[in-house]
Amino acid sequence: MVTLAELGVVREVRQDEDTVVVTVTPTYSGCPAMESIRDDIRASLRRAGFGRVDVRTVLAPAWTTDWISESGRRKLAEAGIAPPGPAPRRAAGPVPLALVARPVAVGCPRCGSAVTEVVTPFGATACRELRRCPVCREPFEHMKEI
Amino acid sequence: MAFDDAYSALTDHDDDARWAYGTGFSDPLASVPSSVPADVDGADLSLYCLMLGDDALILSHRLQEWVTRAPELEDELALANIALDLLGQARLLLSRAGVASGASSLAAVEDVLAFGRDAAEFRNVRLAERSDADFACLVGRLLVMVTWRLAAFDRLASSRDPMLAAIAAKGVKELTYHRDYAAQWVVRLGDGTALSHSRMAAAMAELLPLTGELFATHPVEARLAVAGVAVEPVSLRAEFDGVMAQVLEAATLDPVLPGPPVAASGEGAGRDGVHGPELDEILREMQSVARAVPGGVW
C-alpha cells in the first residue's frame, strides 16, 4: 500500500507534550479525499495508542508530485499506475500557454514499453490520466506531473 | 477505515456528515493558521475572497451542468475535473472570507455562504453565471474566465495575506491546465470545419464584449491593492489580451476587441450583487436541498 507519507501528503509528524501533531497538505484544491485522510490518520494513531491527535492542514508550499518518494513511485508502478516524471519547471514571466499538449515520456507499467499514448488527459481523479500501451495493448493510468 | 466498506464510508464520519453538502465535509482550512495581517481591513478582505470564491463556485456549477451532456466522455471527465478544482478553490476562499469577517463558527461557514445567501449577496462577475448555448460558448467562456483568473492568481501568490497567497499559488497549477484545455478546444473548433468555425466565431464575438466587467476596479480591490493584498484588475489586461490574441490567431478567428471597461461597482455590476435571472436559476438548484432541509443529516 502506498502511504500518505510516501505521497508527500504528510508534511510533518511531531510530538507536542502529550499530543501527536500531524501536518498534511492537499494534492489538489478540490481533493475530496482530504477528510478521509484526516480521519484515517486520527484512527491509525489512536489504534497505535496515541490518544491525543491534532491533524493540521497547510497549503504552502503547494503540493507537487516531486514529493512522491522512490518507494511510493515503485509501489504505484507495481499497482499498474505509471508514476509521474519530474514536475514542469516554470521560467520567469507569465505562465506559458500550451496550444498543443506537452509531450511527456511515460513508460508502460505492465510491459515496460517506453512509448505509450494518451487516451484522455483527464481521468477518474484530478491527479491521473488514462493512457494506452501500443505494445501490450493494455490501458493504464498515469499520475500526472504537477 | 473509510475505504474498507463503501457503504460505511458514507456514514462513518463522526464529525459533521451532512449529505446535502457531500459526506463528512468540515472546515477545509482546519487548523490552518488564519490570522489576518494587522493592517488589513477584515471586511474588505472578506469581500474580496467572496468575489474570487463566487466566481469559482458559480462557474463550477455551470461546468457541472455539462456532465452527461458533453460531446465526448473524455470531455465530461475534463469538465468534471475542472469543476472540482474550481469548487475546491471556492471552498478555500469562502472559508477565508468567513475567517476574515470574524465568523465565530468556522466549520460551517463555507456552507452558510454557499447555500445561505441570496443572489444579491453573490459577488461573482456576471460572465460566471451565464448559461452556454452550445459547447463553443462553454469553451470560449471557460477560456475567458480562467485566463483572467490565472493572471490574477499568479500575482496574488505574492499577496500580503498569507492565506490568499497560498490559495492562489496552489490554484495557479490547476488554472494552467484549465486554460490549456479551453484554448485547445477553441483552436480545434475555430480551425475545424466551416460549421465549427462559424459557431466558435459567433461565441467569441458574443463573449469578448462582455469582458469589460473583469477589468474594472471595484473600490474593495482598489483599497486592498494599495495594501498589497489584491491585484488591480486593469493590471491583468495586457496578459489577458496577449493570450486571447494568441488563441484567436491559432484558431483562425478574427481578433475581437474586448469590451470597454464598465463600472465594477454600482448599477449592473456583479461584484456588487447585481445579477441576472441566470444566477437565480443556478441558486434554485444549487441551494434546494440545503434550504429544504437546513443542516440535515442522513
From TrEMBL, chain A:
Domain of life, per lineage: Bacteria
InterPro entries: Fe-S_Maturation_MIP18, FSCA_dom_sf, MIP18-like, PaaD-like, Zn_ribbon_PaaD
Residues covered by the MIP18 family-like domain: 2-51
Pfam family of the protein (one): Zn_ribbon_PaaD
Domain PaaD zinc beta ribbon residue range list: 101-144
PANTHER family, per database record: 1,2-PHENYLACETYL-COA EPOXIDASE, SUBUNIT D-RELATED, FE-S PROTEIN MATURATION AUXILIARY FACTOR YITW
NCBIfam families found in the cross-reference section: PA_CoA_Oxy4 (TIGR02159)
Name of protein: Ring-1,2-phenylacetyl-CoA epoxidase subunit PaaD
Lineage, top ranks: Bacteria, Bacillati, Actinomycetota, Actinomycetes, Micromonosporales
TrEMBL record, chain B:
UniProt-listed PANTHER family: 1,2-PHENYLACETYL-COA EPOXIDASE, SUBUNIT C, PHENYLACETIC ACID DEGRADATION PROTEIN PAA
The protein, known as: Ring-1,2-phenylacetyl-CoA epoxidase subunit PaaC
Annotated organism of origin: Actinoplanes lutulentus
GO terms of biological process kind: phenylacetate catabolic process
Pfam families hit by this protein: PaaA_PaaC
Example of a GO cellular component annotation carried by this entry: cytosol
